[in-house]
Automatic annotation (TrEMBL):
This is L,D-TPase catalytic domain-containing protein. The keyword Cytoplasm does not apply. The lineage of its organism: Bacteria, Bacillati, Bacillota, Bacilli, Bacillales. SUPFAM superfamilies: L,D-transpeptidase catalytic domain-like. It comes from the Bacteria. Residues 2-116 form the L,D-TPase catalytic domain. PANTHER family: L,D-TRANSPEPTIDASE, L,D-TRANSPEPTIDASE ERFK_SRFK-RELATED. One of its GO terms (molecular function) is peptidoglycan L,D-transpeptidase activity.
Length: 117
């Protein structure tokens, strides 16, 4: 089973199989005052949010949410693609909607997520 490595300093999320990078995605991370928590977590739920109105989803989580075992944190899409690559979230990991949908197809509940500086 693949795992996820989030490198905060690179602002990238890597889908890994052993030491091999299967996919690499740009991300947005937490602001200085609401940093993305470093540690080892698991994906505990996956919730698709299909587009429900012209122009985009109604939720701030873009088209997909994957909750982490750290309560209140997750990996999700965004309604603001210009935020990717920046420190803008409340600690969650934001991805382009197409990227989070691709990642969600490739990982399951229980996937390990390692977040490092």
């Amino acid at each position: 089973m693949p795992n996820i490595l989030v490198d905060l300093s690179e602002r990238r999320l890597f889908l890994m199989e052993g030491n091999r990078v299967l996919r690499s995605y740009p991300i947005a991370i937490g602001k200085i005052l609401s940093r993305t928590p470093v540690g080892i977590y698991r994906i505990i739920n996956k919730v698709p949010y299909p587009y429900t109105r012209p122009g985009g989803p109604l939720t701030p989580y873009g088209t997909y949410w994957m909750g982490l075992s750290r309560r209140g944190y997750g990996i999700h899409g965004t309604n603001r693609p210009s935020s990717i690559g920046k420190r803008v979230s409340r600690g969650c990991i934001r991805m382009y909607n197409r990227d989070v949908e691709d990642l969600a197809r490739r990982v399951g509940i229980g996937t390990i997520v390692i977040i490092r500086q």
